[in-house]
Amino acid sequence: MSKPTPLSGFPELLPSERVVERTVADSLRRTFSLHGFAEIETRAVEPLDQLLRKGETSKEVYVLRRLQETSEEGHAGMGLHFDLTVPFARYVLENAGKLEFPFRRYQVQKAWRGERPQEGRFREFTQADIDVVMKDELPFHFDVEVARVMAEAISALPLPPMTLRINNRKLIEGFYRGIGAPDPAKVITVIDKLDKLSTDEVAALLVTDAGLDDAQAASCLELATITAADGSFVEQVRALGVEHELLETGLAELAAVVDGVSDLDGDRFSVRAQLSLARGLDYYTGTVFEISMDGFESLKSVGGGGRYDALASDGKTTYPGVGISFGISRTLIPLIARGHLRGSRPVPSAVLVAVWDEDSRTVSNQVAQRLRARGIPTEVAPSAQKLGKQIRYAERRGIPFVWFPPTAADETVHQVKDIRDGNQVEADPDAWQPPTQDLHPTIVSTTLEELS
Amino acid sequence: MSKPTPLSGFPELLPSERVVERTVADSLRRTFSLHGFAEIETRAVEPLDQLLRKGETSKEVYVLRRLQETSEEGHAGMGLHFDLTVPFARYVLENAGKLEFPFRRYQVQKAWRGERPQEGRFREFTQADIDVVMKDELPFHFDVEVARVMAEAISALPLPPMTLRINNRKLIEGFYRGIGAPDPAKVITVIDKLDKLSTDEVAALLVTDAGLDDAQAASCLELATITAADGSFVEQVRALGVEHELLETGLAELAAVVDGVSDLDGDRFSVRAQLSLARGLDYYTGTVFEISMDGFESLKSVGGGGRYDALASDGKTTYPGVGISFGISRTLIPLIARGHLRGSRPVPSAVLVAVWDEDSRTVSNQVAQRLRARGIPTEVAPSAQKLGKQIRYAERRGIPFVWFPPTAADETVHQVKDIRDGNQVEADPDAWQPPTQDLHPTIVSTTLEELS
């Protein structure tokens, strides 16, 4: 076998890079669990008809077949999931009788899309999703809750600062109804083009495509410029003089969600009510979310979500939900590739136990076991080379401590050396403890300070 | 969408069942890390030519294509990995220049096989693999090390007792050479049939297929009966009076591996030198391992591995390795399905904070945040129902504690109730701590005692 080459769109990490991903995933899990979200995993495959319900992603689905499959029956009709929402909706329907509602769940798993790879966009990627799903009706306070949980989760990560942008479908649809727009959905579609077209071009489309007059168009564009870090957007909207019941509901909901995370707003995290945000608004029915990473706007959103009044339905019962997804690969792989993040070492070991000669390897193994028994990751030198070589073995792996068991000549004294400063002391394998920050590999952010 | 039905061979777990899988995976990770094994993940897909190098699994491979793929080029030629060894060997070759050798790695990931589903055999399953790989030459003591690490890892699991069976290819090949077998590989193939055929049938095949005389055949069969929990097998083999250099090496190696884990032999774990074990001996070159779960022999092996002198090779450099794989799905799914294992509750929450009325939900949220700040998983009641209903909400989820914030009438007193015994006490949200065993969901083994 000749040297294999990487496969475009299927990123893999070196051991020290995996430390970053593992640490981030564990941190997310911890926050989600603290808020009572249960973990589930769903299978990687779904029936194709489920995967293709959203027409626009159909071309991105990976279809499976068994190599020796003779007929088209077998697994024809199965594909890899392209997100965690479709499998979750199916899981809820399939297990509805065995779940307690409201059902809070988180899911950290891979998904696959056959799209063209580019920075932050992969064919295999890991996501972290939280959702709350209920039978029949889901109280609004869960919108505030999922925003809060994800805001806490991402602001705890050792990454560049994140911004959570929030809007509300009821707010903008109510506004468009309030000004007498004949087709509010069409207005939303046109306003959504603001990130690609000029304001003048969008204004013209609002007239030609959405049937607004010039004054109505101007009003819609003015609404889209409104953004605020707190509830002050409400007064800005009111100043536009439009009234509608749905608008009032949307204003109250958006203000409540923003207020629910505003105490986290700071160096690590920002919250913005942003009334131009139109993230798949045909799909969502109230709150919508989008997460971006400051300084990495080229990645576009690194997460998003919202409220859907029918996450799933079996015809008899409807299951409304609200949730947010965070792109772990989308966020981490570019940061790692650009050299901003790495693990402090490629091995878990905090200690290397030296071996004087192969006959005394058992002695070294026993020392290692005593350290491990107290939770200290430890490995034993692979061969009884000269001590200098054993120390260099540790250095190359970033293992901070080398342990010297007693030699035959002096049968009781253990010593441990911090190979970073050369400091060497006597130590008891049943009592010695490395500094907490040396115990496990951690994330090192090399140039993130400059970015934040 | 009508109610979906489960997909045969693709098991999914309910939230309380996922607690079991998560706890087991975390426990394995912890042991592997303590021994200095670094975690990696590999992509789910490999080139088909890599996956098909072992001819016998070709029919089980899932092949991928993109739904809208026009030509056969694109992803034709990609399949889902069916184990973690093929991807690991490829990863080592691809990243050889960036890895430090010896390279200890563990990997806990899903794999896929299109085989017929049965108890413990799935089309999607999770494995935990440890391996040590080296350039050119891998010292023998790593065979002892991986046996030790996996033995510690599995004996720490709250599962039925496990047995690690060990044999050595050099030992049996050396023995067959020592008795003058014309084709030792053929003898191994025939001896491997001992679990399907009678001793007499195997004896006949040793003569007709492997070219032995009756005395040689009897000698081989006698070797295969030898089993021991310690180094006493060496004397049993010597008593057969066969001499060969390779046999001596094999005896010494097997004795060393058995000795390296013998102190763990006990109620939770057994070690056996078993000289009939012929687990893919054409593939392995020295030590071979097989793990079984006591009382669940119908599952056959739940793990296995061994030494391969050429895990990978790029033509210039050869990478020998030694490793063991443990089947997480293979072990847990049958135990869960038979009702032996479950999580103590389906939610992480240790506390439910009651809500007096929707206006005071903020007060309840603040209590929850103070508990979470000290690492106590907490959720807030979904609605301000009567207290009895809120307590039943906790009961249905197995949440052990319900917290009552101060009412408007009495503004300072917090109370917390253990809903299992009804005991209710005043408590400070910044100081109260639940018993450690209630903090997180744990694994409950309902009838395992009877099995072990």
Automatic annotation (TrEMBL), chains A, B:
Coiled coil: none
Gene3D superfamilies in alphabetical order: Anticodon-binding domain (3.40.50.800), Bira Bifunctional Protein, Domain 2 (3.30.930.10)
CDD domains: HisRS-like_core
Sorted UniProt keywords: Aminoacyl-tRNA synthetase, ATP-binding, Cytoplasm, Ligase, Nucleotide-binding, Protein biosynthesis
Chain ranges of the Aminoacyl-transfer RNA synthetases class-II family profile domain: 20-346
GO MF term list: histidine-tRNA ligase activity
Chemical reaction(s) catalysed: tRNA(His) + L-histidine + ATP = L-histidyl-tRNA(His) + AMP + diphosphate + H(+)
SUPFAM superfamilies in alphabetical order: Class II aaRS ABD-related, Class II aaRS and biotin synthetases
EC number from the UniProt entry: 6.1.1.21
InterPro entries per record: aa-tRNA-synth_II, aa-tRNA-synth_II/BPL/LPL, Anticodon-bd, Anticodon-bd_dom_sf, His-tRNA-ligase, HisRS-like_core, HisRS/HisZ
Superkingdom of the organism of origin: Bacteria
Family the UniProt entry places it in: Belongs to the class-II aminoacyl-tRNA synthetase family.
Subunit note: Homodimer.
Protein name per its UniProtKB record: Histidine--tRNA ligase
